[in-house]
Amino acid sequence: MLGTYKKGHAISFLNHNGQAVSEVRDIANILGAKFSKISSNESYPPVFAAYKQKEERKALNFKTSTCKEYNAPFTVQELTAALNKTRPTSSGPDRIHCNMLKNLSEKSLNVILFLFNRIWTEQCFPALWCKAVVVPIPKPGKDPHNPSHYRPIALTSCLCKLMERIVNTRLVYFLEETGHLSKFQSGFRCTRGTVDNALMLETAVRDAFVTKKHLVSIFFDMDKAYDRAWRYGISRDLYKMGLRGNLPLFMKEFLGRRTFNVRVGDVLSDDFPQYEGVPQGSVLSVILFVIKVNEIVQQLPQYVHGSLYVDDFQIHCAGVNMSFIERQLQTAITAITNWCDKNGFVLSAQKTNCVHFCKLRGMHPHPEIFLNGTSISMVSEAKFLGIILDEKLSFPPHILNLKHYGCTIYGSARKSLLQTLDTIHHQGLRLSSGAFRTSPVQSLYIINKEPALELRRHKIALKYYFKIKSNSEHPMHNKILQPAFGTFYASKKSYIPSFGHRMRSVIQTLNTQNVEIEPKEDGLPPWRGFNIRTIDGFYKLPKSLTSDNVYRQLFYYHRQRHKDFNSAFTDGSKTANHVGSAVVFNNFTVTEKLHEYCTVFTAEVYAILLALNVIGTSQDKKWII
Length: 625
Hints:
By secondary structure, the protein is an alpha+beta fold.
């Protein structure tokens, strides 16, 4: 009922210091000591350990007499929004489950809100919230008797995670609004995702191909990055960003005094400290890690570009001369390692890979690049954020694995390769519909109400294209349609265009090149407590099962109940070639024609906007739409 993990993974014994340990509590303590050591000062390089000791002598004063909006008490709207986003995860040491919180009464939620605000304003963090129960999970394909081959899964307080979610929303809003996050960081950000970084790299590679250049990309691996994130460094970064008061003080308390127990079966280990790192299983861990790693992209020299997805770090450099590329990338690695030496991160030379993207004929050497004195492995393909990129960017390894993910990027592959997906897609449609093997493909699409894969890829790519164009802060916004490369692609038909130029031809085919794209609107601050309340007595009555008389009676009842309000009736409609919105008031009507590619939903919402624009200029204050 509590969602706790009772049985656990059966660990028969562990090999420790040359001996087999089978006692369950001893196994739990061995794993606890192993997990704790990863976050200790012993795991840091000597250079950083000395720097860390020196820097931590400098006190950070987060107290302020200035009233900051992000330090305001939490509102019931913020609590409700956080509760709605909460998933039914396992309970932590306090044994309070998320489902318990979701079923609380309004009065009980007000008590929790009062508790959260006391913690927020008095900076008194509950001791139980600093504890975690860790369940060891064996790494797949590894020896289960080696203590180093287990991954810790932490269970923390659901009540704490609920408060974290509120704080996280405020912190993310502050970071986005003030522009502190690097535009090349796509991890866990609104309207951003893994495809952003993969698309940036694909565009750079396509542009290098058409201009007859080499492009070398390095895919880094950060060793135990979350467990080694420097806590004082995170607080220092928050201080540099100008955060003062309740929010950074909460972060400081949240990161301090962390302990955990390892659970094997029903047995708990002794208490072990987590010296450094962000707490696993916590809502705030990701954004705090993002803050700590945020400046790594700024270390790159002029001709080297890179991207981040939380800790997935990639850099690349293009050029005609391989010696030039080698020098630039080696300079970049030197700058990155110097930054890591001052921030506690360690780049694994064994797990870091390098791909030389090139379509030039003839003999040309691969670059030789070193990381911490070790030569980086040169591979013919690399898996980057779930997409397998080969050195010719033809995508056979990815497509032959039947991946639908990343079609925005691999949609540029040759048609004969993409048709292998079509064959499997058609077979699935025949099985689901019971159609004959001889049934025409077009009839399969109609029967199953499924579009062709090519159309689906175009739809996904167009949505992504418009999303980029609507966001001026997106790193691809100004690069997506560079005229210089458009000339190259037009004159060299044998080269596959980059994403933006591929989409331009699709847009011209659909005759949508003159569509104006609305810029992305910034959201309202979460602490303002803005909440839209709606009155809808019809949503529980399906149209197919409800007679017109029932709707009419409910409407009359609704009008009588709100007879003191002025009325505004809105509607949106769409036909084959026309889309329009309208709002009807007592003595006049407002109509507007929309672009023919707008959806019915857009028309309906735009009609409400028309009504609100009129109501905003009216002297009357009581309106119902």
